[in-house]
């Protein structure tokens, strides 16, 4: 299923299933089929796999009139980030693609040696914005605003010291995060000021449930700025794959339903190009991950 968080007019955020140009409202659809389903994405994740399975099965059996009666045309809705306000910081993984390690060592202050264990940082919930929301460019703070297209993992069940072999069973689904980074805002090797600013975690457009992506290490990723391709790679080139990242983080920090891990970006970031390129007000950045879609955001002066 493609799950979205959407809003109609001034109404609150609601969870829906996107299909054939419609957004089927999960709570309203559940009412028709006698399923107690919630109105928000985090509540749906909290309900666990049985609720998701019941929703999926009811959608297969649903007749067209019920679908239309509980849906809105996708074009009438404003898409929000699938989880508009995560309960915790988003986990970020740095230097998780070989070629990106090399370009970072050339252009930034990172080591040329491949990390021996995942490099973990975080982005606060206030960094999250939706498809089409502005990425804020404050020229008083940065002259080096950069893009990083990443596959993001949404956790579905509590994971504490899980083995790699069991790690994917804790995944609810996958989305896209652009790990926007102000390269000139790193402080003493710490990345949170560079990557944690307001609007620096565009997320979406949807969460694709884990059953539709049984192997997350087979997905093409691409980035365009103003329609020009900047990054093109595949998740098979991750240094630490999704299983290993979940196992590693959960060995020291319990992962909980709704937690999000941005799994790192491949080569082709602006800082690594010759000459270097960065994003400026008026630019539009698009992040693509196969099976999930495109996340597009304008850069806006603040
Ligand atoms: Mg990144």
Task: Give a quick rundown of the structure.
It is built from 8 helices and 19 strands. The chain is α+β, with helices and mostly antiparallel strands and 302 residues long. The strands form 3 sheets. Strands 1, 2, 3, 4, 5, 6, 7, 8, 11, 12, 14 and 17 form a 12-stranded mixed beta sheet that branches. It has a 5-stranded mixed beta sheet with strand order 9-19-18-15-16, with no helix packed on it.
Description:
The protein is an alpha+beta fold. It has two domains: 2-80, Roll (SH3 type barrels); 90-301, Fumarylacetoacetate hydrolase, domain 2 (Alpha-Beta Complex), CATH 3.90.850. It is 20% helix and 32% strand. The protein contains eight helices and 19 strands. The protein has helices spanning 26-32, 41-47, 49-61, 64-69, 98-107, 164-167, 192-195, 242-250; strands spanning 2-7, 14-19, 22-25, 71-73, 78-80, 90-94, 119-123, 128-129, 135-137, 145-146, 149-155, 171-178, 181-182, 201-209, 220-225, 228-234, 260-262, 284-289, 293-301. Strands 1, 2, 3, 4, 5, 6, 7, 8, 11, 12, 14 and 17 form a twelve-stranded mixed sheet that branches. It has a five-stranded mixed sheet with strand order 9-19-18-15-16, with no helix packed on it. A hairpin with a 6-residue loop joins strand 1 (2-7) and strand 2 (14-19). The longest helix has 13 residues, at 49-61. It starts with a strand and ends with a strand. The model has no long low-confidence stretch (mean pLDDT 96). The structure holds magnesium ion (MG). Magnesium ion is lined by residues 92, 148, 150, 179, 264-265. Magnesium ion binds at residues 92, 148, 150, 179, 264-265.
């Amino acid at each position: 299923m493609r799950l979205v968080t959407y809003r109609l007019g001034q109404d609150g955020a609601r969870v829906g299933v996107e299909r054939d140009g419609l957004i089927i409202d999960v709570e309203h659809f559940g009412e028709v089929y006698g399923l107690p389903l919630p109105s928000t994405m985090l509540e749906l994740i909290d309900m666990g796999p049985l609720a998701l399975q019941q929703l999926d099965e009811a959608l297969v059996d649903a007749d067209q009139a019920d679908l239309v009666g509980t849906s809105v045309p996708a074009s009438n809705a404003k898409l929000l980030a699938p989880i508009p306000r995560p309960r915790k910081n988003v986990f970020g993984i740095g230097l998780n693609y070989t070629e990106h390690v090399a370009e970072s060592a050339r252009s930034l202050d990172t080591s040329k040696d491949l990390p021996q264990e995942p490099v973990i940082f975080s982005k606060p919930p206030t960094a999250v914005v939706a498809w089409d929301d502005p990425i804020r460019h404050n020229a008083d703070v940065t002259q080096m605003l950069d893009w990083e297209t990443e596959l993001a993992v949404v956790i579905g069940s509590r994971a504490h010291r899980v083995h790699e072999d069991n790690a994917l069973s804790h995944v609810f689904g996958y989305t896209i995060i652009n790990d926007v980074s102000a390269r000139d805002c790193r402080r003493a090797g710490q990345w949170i000021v560079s990557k944690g600013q307001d609007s620096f975690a565009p997320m979406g457009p949807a969460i694709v449930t884990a059953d539709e992506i049984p192997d997350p290490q087979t997905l093409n990723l691409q980035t365009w700025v103003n329609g020009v391709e900047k990054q093109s790679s595949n998740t098979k080139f991750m240094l630490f794959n999704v299983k290993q990242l979940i196992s590693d983080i959960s060995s020291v920090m319990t992962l909980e339903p709704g937690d999000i891990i941005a799994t790192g970006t491949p080569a082709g970031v602006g800082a690594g190009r010759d000459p270097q390129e960065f994003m400026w007000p008026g630019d539009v950045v698009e992040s693509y991950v196969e099976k999930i879609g495109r996340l597009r955001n304008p850069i806006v002066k603040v």
